[in-house]
Write a structure and sequence with these properties.
By secondary structure, this protein is mainly α. It has helices at 12-36, 39-65, 71-105.
Length: 133
């Protein structure tokens, strides 16, 4: 005779399903926030995704040690991992583009990169020397 699991203890597959679904939902929410360029939502959803990923990795690691992960959940986890990587790459590209724009608009403190002094004229004092006739 089979004894059904206690209602307080979910079967391992459903714990994995719940943790993976949480990752997928938070990944989707972060993607929406990125498309909307909502900085506050991006920050919130990124933090929630981080927590959900940590929880899912813990659950999946436990399941792997205790006998394995069902193939369907393994494929979904791989898909979610790919989406995280794609969002990370997209964010890195956007950050690099923003950094380049800022560098053009606000030159750094490197004297060699400054074309004009704070007074507006060309800053020739860094080049030194004097022309004598």
């Amino acid at each position: 005779m089979l004894i059904p699991p206690s209602p307080r203890v979910a079967p391992e597959g459903s714990e994995l399903e719940v943790s993976l679904s949480a990752v997928e939902q938070r990944l989707s929410a972060l993607g929406d926030a990125l498309r909307e360029r909502n900085a506050q939502a991006i920050e919130t959803h990124a933090s929630e995704l981080h927590r959900a990923l940590a929880h899912a990795v813990n659950r999946f690691s436990q399941a792997a040690r205790q006998g394995g992960v069902p193939p369907l959940l393994r494929r979904r986890l791989a898909t979610a991992s790919g989406e995280v990587a794609a969002q990370r790459e997209s964010l890195a590209r956007a950050t690099a583009a923003l950094d380049r724009a800022i560098d053009v608009l606000l030159p750094g403190d490197n004297p060699a990169s400054q074309i004009y002094s704070p007074q507006g004229g060309a800053d020739r004092s860094q080049r030194g020397g004097m022309i004598q006739a």
